[in-house]
Amino acid sequence: MRQITVTEHLILHQKKSPAATGMFTGLLHDLILAAKLITRNVSSAGLLDVLGGTGEINVQGEAVQKLDDFANRVLIHRMERSGALCMMASEEIADIIPVPSRFTRGDYVLIFDPLDGSSNIDVNINTGTIFSILRRRTPASQDPSIDDALQAGMHQVAAGYILYGPSTMLVYTTGQGVHGFTLDPSVGEFLLSHPNMQIPEQGKIYSVNEGNYLHWDNTTQNIVNYFKSKDNAIGSPYSMRYVGSLVADFHRTLLYGGIFMYPMDHRSPEKPRGKLRLLCEASPLSFVAEQAGGAATDGLKRILEIEPTSLHERVPLFIGSRNDVEVVNKFYAGAM
Ligand code: AHG
Ligand code: MN
Ligand code: MN
């Protein structure tokens, strides 16, 4: 395959995309540079003092891993200088992160999970960075506000992820399909390796942490039992795969099809909740899934239609092959 870089691809194939402005191309460039800095530390984590925790607890109530903190700092430092952003929001930071007025501010908002799959870092299993790009809603004459971040996923200008695995991959969409690039470390460039990615309409893999089974309601238990039974769309039990890093489980689902599920759990009966974050995990991956011909729901509605009410809002997530997600919707609608 001819070696096509991200920049060339943006210019050649995204012409009609409103996102393919110079400012956006610059934004993606800086995001790619941040990803290269992160992948350098992730791929030699065992040799650097970046394993383990920092001893802090983040806004999610989770122990911060050193690589979480490193990835977060690299992204903020690099992206506030991109000239394309007025504001950012990170899974690791409680509030919005306005770009300091000493830097050039742009029209975009970047929301990110700096390192997804933190619990897998110390055992050398895939991790990733997930990003969502919105256009600011407040006028440029004002300071950015949380309203610029609290937008339903359907308003995203672009979204994607970098997967730190046997190879480092960038997968993103600007609303013109989904395209995958693989980092060639010998030249330091992401080169087009997976043009126009499409999720198979019908899957045969389900992906869920069955250790939470007792915390699910009956409908959810019936859904998972459906995929494990013979009475399903393929007439035999689906295979089960679960990495525990959303980016890795999603990337496999994007390529092989099937369904990834992180259902609502009723661990605390008064406050049943999903685990995954709407703005920096579910929304961006749902934009990618739909652009690849797949679907994503919280069980009741399209993820991309959910109007966020808070920066770190969590949602149940069912995402992947269109037919499999449709089954989930039917179960929750009482039609199965
Ligand atoms: P993060 O490391 O960014 O906090 O995300 C972890 C998430 C996600 O990557 C994965 O799908 C999920 O946590 C796994 O949760 P369980 O360990 O509860 O299965
Ligand atoms: Mn995550
Ligand atoms: Mn994370």
Protein architecture, described:
The chain has 336 residues and is an alpha+beta fold. The chain has 2 domains: 6-194, Fructose-1,6-Bisphosphatase, subunit A, domain 1 (Fructose-1,6-Bisphosphatase, Chain A, domain 1, 2-Layer Sandwich), CATH 3.30.540; 205-332, D-Maltodextrin-Binding Protein, domain 2, CATH 3.40.190.80. It contains 7 helices and 17 strands. The protein has an 8-stranded mixed β-sheet with strand order 4-3-5-6-7-8-9-10, with helices on both faces. The protein has a 5-stranded mixed β-sheet with strand order 12-11-13-17-15, with helices on both faces. Helix 4 (218-228) links the parallel strand 11 and strand 12 (239-240). The radius of gyration is 19 Å and the shape is globular. The mean pLDDT is 93. The structure holds 2,5-anhydro-1,6-di-O-phosphono-D-glucitol (AHG) and manganese (II) ion (MN) (2 copies). One manganese (II) ion binds at residues 68, 91, 113, 115-116, 118.
CATH architecture of the largest domain: 2-Layer Sandwich
Give me the CATH superfamily of the largest domain.
Fructose-1,6-Bisphosphatase, subunit A, domain 1
**Helical content band:** 25-40%
Beta-strand share of residues? 15-25%
* Average pLDDT: 93
User: DSSP helix count?
Assistant: 7
What structural class results from the helix and strand content?
A: alpha+beta
Count of DSSP strands: 17
N-to-C SSE series? HHEEHEEEEEEEEEHEHEEHEEEH
Bound small molecules, by name, code or SMILES, are: 2,5-anhydro-1,6-di-O-phosphono-D-glucitol, manganese (II) ion
How far do the termini sit from each other? 45 Å
User: What number of structural domains do the residues give?
Assistant: 2
Largest sheet: 8 strands, mixed
**Sheet with the most strands: spatial strand order:** 4-3-5-6-7-8-9-10
